[in-house]
Amino acid sequence: MKAMLAIRCLAAAASFLFGATAHGAELRGHGGPVRSIAIAPDGQTAITGSFDAKAIIWSLETGEAQQVLLFHESQVDAVAALPQGRYATAGADGRIAIWEAGRSTPVSVLHGHDGPVVALAVAPDGSTLASASWDASVRLWPLSGAPSRILKGHHGNVNAVTFLSDGTLASAGYDAAIILWPPGHDAAPMRISMPGPLNALVTVPGDRLLAAGADGTLRQIDRRGAIVAEVRVSTGPLIALAATADKRYIAASAIREGIVLLDSRTLKPVNTFGGAGVATVWALAFARGERTLLTGGADTIISEWDVETGRRLGTSAAIQADLMSEYAGNPDAEIFRACIACHTLGPEDGNRAGPTLHGIFGRKIAALADYPYSPAFRRMDIVWTPETVSKLFELGPSIYTPGTKMPNQTINDPEDRAALIRFLQSETRRD
User: Fold this and answer.
1) Cα-Cα-Cα-Cα dihedral of 44, 90, 256, 58, to 10°?
2) What total number of domains does the chain contain?
3) Which residues does UniProt assign to the signal peptide (predicted)?
């Protein structure tokens, strides 16, 4: 029972940890479908956004969830990694937040869109952030803080933005159009009519575009606006695209047929990932020097795939092995296995993505001065006791502590909750 519970709890939420780097990864921590993934320029860090209204910054070297970003009122639809170690998140609330690592609140908030912001892109020189919104507009935000530039020309939801090498912005939307916006204010945009609604864009060598169609077709478009190649990838809509840094390969996900890897020059399929049995994938990003593909979607998990073999990497058995080794032989420790990636236990260990649990019993909720609790936590009047901790996992954080950063999870079996309490009482007490 305890082993089964540990697996369920791991799948539910609180394991913010990779397996060993050599074996790939499963990132588990979001409490809702994963909507977006971006890799930092140095390749060492990823940021993910989810329908759970949270973004998470992950170390790709250690697998640690370095920070949970809580700001948006609802789902986080888009994320971007910016120069100088900063990040951007955007959501259904129409706001774009700019973050610096280690800070619990945004350093700035970009206002202007009147509808959900569903895509972000960073200019090749790193100076400008582009956003696409369902308010039918695109905006260019100078990261220097200068006023934004509003681009209007679409006749419905704008679903995608990407930059060409000379700074030209390309946008695509539900109105079955791609618009090329030259960097100069005086240059006229070019509107390219397409056969149907579009959900995603990427650039490929030669400043060509690949557009993901709602009809399941991937189309290649040149700078003149001509469709130079196309391939039917799926019987259902294509919903996400990603390109390797050298633009040799393109990954495309579809609602029905999973993920396909294609040669960007010929558009011929090279590999598939998981087949039709994979949960709907909304987010794609290449990682580890383009050797692997990170995917996120309806199952709330960020999975990693070997690009060459198409094999899914990382297993639950590889996760947290080193961190749990000192508790070998303690059956109660198995229930904590799903929590150790976020929470430390000892007096000298400090915080991880979640606050340290050292001395938790008898402590008032949100009482640690050095941890950035969510505002909802700070307003609560709870003292952590064996009874209140048990209730937290009986009901789940979303019910017992609504507004928390903690992903929702429950421990249904009373014996398993009792085992967790015994373990915490033993390992977190103040001497």
Assistant:
1) 20
2) 2
3) 1-24
Q: Residues 355-393: pLDDT tens digits?
A: 889 999 999 999 998 777 777 788 899 999 999 999 999
Among candidate residues 252, 286, 316, the one where a domain is terminated: 316
Shortest CA distance to 271 belongs to which of 284, 281, 258, 286?
Answer: 258
Residue 8 belongs to some domain of the structure: no
The tens digit of pLDDT for each residue in 210-262 reads 999 999 999 999 999 999 999 999 988 999 999 998 888 999 999 877 899 99
Burial class (CB in 10 A: 0-12, 13-18, 19+), 328: exposed
CATH number assigned to the domain comprising residue 174: 2.130.10.10
Q: Quote the pLDDT of residue 64.
A: 75
Same domain, 214 and 338: no
Q: Contact, 117 vs 77, CB < 8 A?
A: yes
Cα 141 to its chain centre, rounded Å, is 22
Please say which residue of 316, 340, 371 terminates a domain.
316
| pTM for this entry | 0.74
Output the domain CATH number for residue 356. 1.10.760.10
> Same domain for 310 and 325?
no
pLDDT of residue 420: 94
The mean pLDDT value for 294-304 works out to 89
Asked, for residue 260, whether it belongs to a domain, the answer is: yes
Q: How far is CA 28 from CA 65, 85, 359, in A?
A: 10, 23, 26
Q: Each residue of 169-179: pLDDT tens digit?
A: 999 999 999 99
Same domain, 348 and 282: no
Torsion angle, alpha carbons of 68, 70, 76, 78, to 10: -60
